[in-house]
Input
Amino acid sequence: MKNNLAVVILAAGKGERMKSDIPKVMHPLCGRPMIGYILDLAKELKASKIVAVLGHKHQQIKPFLSVRVKPVIQKKLLGTADAVKTALTQLKGFSGTVLVLYADNPLLKKETVAKLLKYHRENNLAATLLTAQVEKPAGYGRILRDKRASIRGIVEEKDADDFEKDIKEINTGIICFNKKALEQGLRLVRPNNRKKEYYLTDLVSILAQKEFLVDAVKLDDINEALGINARPDLAKANNLMQQRINDGYMRKGVTIIDPATTLIAFGAKIGRDSLIYPFTVIASDVIIGKHCSIGPFAHLREGTRLEDGVLLGNFVEVVRSKISRNTWAKHFSYIGDSRIGRQVNIGAGTVTANFDGVKKHLTVIKDNAFIGSDTVLVAPVNIGRKATTGAGAVVLAGSKVKDNTVVAGIPAKLLAKKR
Output
């Protein structure tokens, strides 16, 4: 059965408090633009229609959207109600539930929104708000209820009197509508007298006055509704999302000794029984096999691929490299643009000098090679099977060290052949 759900994602704002040349919703959260999490949420909800309302610097956001997402431009930023009205131009012929989400609310969970939608549909409501009970509600709009506990509106804190400021139930901004009720209500929204903007929150009181059924579902964890408006909000959201990501890996069989000091970006893959030591940074395009040991103070950058049983110790940096099973690099190494075979020993202080000032070059180290401490491999370079480099060797660009040989010196020269 087709899910009769349309999701409208609001992503048009300037985000002036971010003090940035980058659109707010494109700021990275654990290695990906924050809007990506809301786009994933819409997909997980199996929405039949997804509309993203863009505005400020929309050219930077559009390329990130999938083909399933229909972008629409809010030419003048006239508030959230106007943004939703703009989105409805892409929902002609659609009838069902319209869920309004914000691209700067990346911590919202699928289970929470599914609960909201279920309650909305089962009770045949015109509008259902996601609210929360907060002991210190400063900064949030308050939910106004009548003597029968029915919702009659939302008052923003700046407009609230002393009694209203004491209300603990707050508006998260997340709301779903019956489409017909939404269309009728939007026609009655009037601009705010000061900013001349049209606010979606005004729609709640309009619908209530017209005796439409309006209700709410309360959120258990207020952190899910955290909106990112300034850099401190981004830092807080990053910490919360990182905790979720790390918890997810640990539940799948990865040991993270100190999650508070371990940064793993969204999209990385780590096999079970791998061990991650403190102060390790793992980028999004990284794949780590089973039974690996990483860190402490390791940095695995984009394009890193580790097979099972790899050991990367303290102060090792790897980027755009494949390291095959049971290879060790225990101390102080930089491995860039490399293809390293099985059971290779990378000695302390080894550096792959992969950049010549113009382009990056490849280093190849074959199975069972032994790279001595402080070796510099000036790419492009090829180290053969069971070959050895002496401590402090500098293997020059274009060199091909043959299988079963030993090279040493500056520049590295053939020292011996192994039996």
About this structure: The chain has a mean pLDDT of 95. The chain has eight helices and 35 strands.
